[in-house]
Specification:
Strand order of the largest sheet: 3-8-7-4
Bound molecules: zinc ion
Structural class: alpha/beta
Number of strands: 8
Distance between the termini: 31 Å
Order of helices and strands: HHEEHHHEHHHEHHEHEHEHE
Helix content: 25-40%
Shape: globular
Strand content: 5-15%
Number of domains: 2
Length: 339
């Protein structure tokens, strides 16, 4: 695998995004100032090391008063005193370890999407895209945060600069949107209560909202350049935390010809054939359906991606899975950011 400087990868990424027919959301990422990391900070750690054994609670309390315990922020790496800042305003369903592992300054920069205006794509502002779309591969899609300048910087550090320690922190940011979507489906199914409250006799959750989590694929060329597919990693992390199986089911074909030379219509048509189901996808879906013959609804799949822009990527991925499946399947989307 060839190692290239982050700048050239970013240029390649920008070109591919432009060529894919999606608006180039990353276009100016290269020109962005870096996320304001603390230069004196130690690199972000996933797990704080255990502190020294304290002689007594009283002494510990006194010492905390004089010099509060410091932790390294999971997002910027800067030192901060956990417990000294308010956790108010953070979405419910964010793990406590996330809330206490991110400094107040970083927490304040995250534009969580807590209210949506479009019930199809989860946009927090009035949406003109969903009514214009002619095909509808997915039923609903939701996103964790708005794609602001700060969120672009944060995602670029993970995606292009290879700061892999950010992955669990970014994946956990998906949980509030995931649980909100799950709750919508539970209401639709008239199955009130949280997943954990409704365990079947075999210990499986009767109200598990999704049968499988999958992800938007990247092309082989981009995979070789970057070394990982960020959507697949986010999907796998989310699935572990939500107690659902994750599995890549889609393939992305290599783009043919210069897309930049094509008209918008030609580009959209070319983007249509960009995603296809993996050869094993139909068999996996059939096995999933056979596992629970008494299920009264279609299989439910969640497609995870990092950014939702126009929705055409999500739509084409959902359509590819619907076309390949021999069993009824409903597709939903979840992305880290909403452009
Ligand atoms: Zn921070
Ligand atoms: Zn919409």
């Amino acid at each position: 695998m060839s190692i290239q400087p982050a700048g050239s990868l970013l240029r390649a990424e920008t070109r591919l995004l432009r060529d894919s027919g999606e608006p180039a959301a990353e276009e100016s990422a290269e020109l962005l100032p870096p996320w304001p990391t603390d230069p004196k900070a130690a690199p972000a750690r996933l797990y704080p090391s255990p502190g020294p054994a304290w002689p007594s609670r009283l002494l510990r309390g006194l010492l905390e008063l004089l010099a509060p315990a410091r932790a390294a922020c999971g997002l910027c790496g800067g030192g901060f005193a956990p417990g000294r800042t308010s956790l108010a305003g953070l979405p419910a369903d964010l793990p406590r370890s996330w809330c206490e592992g991110v400094c107040g300054r970083c927490r304040g920069m995250i534009p969580w999407i807590s209210r949506i205006q479009c019930h199809v794509c989860g946009r927090p502002d009035p949406c003109g895209d969903c009514c214009r779309r002619t095909s509808s591969g997915f039923i609903r899609s939701r996103s964790a945060v708005r794609y602001t300048l700060e969120m672009r910087q944060l995602l670029a550090r993970y995606k292009y600069r290879g700061e892999e320690a950010l992955q669990p922190w970014l994946a956990e940011m998906l949980l509030p949107a995931y649980h909100a979507l799950a709750e919508e489906l539970r209401l639709a199914d008239r199955l009130p209560g949280r997943v954990s409250d409704r365990l079947g006799r075999d210990g499986r959750s009767e109200a598990q909202p999704f049968d499988l989590v999958t992800s938007v694929p990247i092309s082989r060329q981009r995979l070789e350049e970057r070394g990982f597919n960020q959507a697949e990693r986010l999907a796998a992390s989310l699935a572990v935390r939500a107690g659902v199986t994750s599995r890549p089911l889609l393939e992305r074909k290599e783009e043919r010809g210069k897309m930049s030379a094509k008209t918008r219509r030609e580009r959209l048509l070319a983007a249509e054939g960009l995603f296809g189901a993996a050869p094993e996808a139909a068999g996996i879906l059939r096995l999933l359906a056979a596992r629970d013959p008494e299920r009264r609804r279609p299989l439910r799949l969640l497609i995870v991606d990092d950014i939702y822009t126009t929705g055409s990527t999500m739509d084409h991925c959902a359509l590819a899975l619907q076309r390949c499946s021999h069993v009824p399947v409903d597709l939903y989307g979840l992305t880290w950011a909403r452009a």
